[in-house]
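Morning F.,

Quick status update on the modeling queue. The single chain you submitted on Monday has been processed. Sequence for confirmation:
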Amino acid sequence: MSVTPADLTGTERAVLLVLMAESRPVPNPELVALGPALDKPGRDKLNRLGLIESERVGNRFVHELTDRGWRLCGDIISATAPPRSTGPAKTLYTVLGGLGRYLQRADLSLAEVFGPAAEGSVEERVRAAYVRLATRPGGWVALSRLRAELDDPRDDVDAALRALYRVPGVSLIPEENQKVLTADDRAAAVVIGGGAKHLIAFEP
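Structure tokens below.
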């Protein structure tokens, strides 16, 4: 089935552009932080058209652009603004058109421009892992689960957690009900101010 940008809503086109820009699997909470939310009808449609692949991981969906999705992003970039577009939407298409002309002059593909982001600091990886794991913005995440998402040495993660503890909007607390702690929970705790912290939250 042939698909054109006109077959998609503005939200669906925006989702594809976000996935293109990130060039990696993007969990729902990150997608909402980076662009529009993708509801079930939109998710089902983009998957049915073969533009994205969505996988349920835990209690959330993770989305990734397919080769067909990349090709359609190229069509979106070279397209004119849809009829009845608002001023901001027209501006976006003007910028995208400029990007398309640059890609043609430089003989570059979208994948060559929008590669995966360079690896950041340990603190940034902690934040990214939290976003993947939190069931809601600002929700508590066990450090045992957080550490399982990270490949960094324990000392480096401990140092990052202690630095984040001093940042406004970041909370690290002990588990109130110590009876529910597993051996992994206790081993994953970080000691700050003489007390073991088992849970972390970032304010949305």
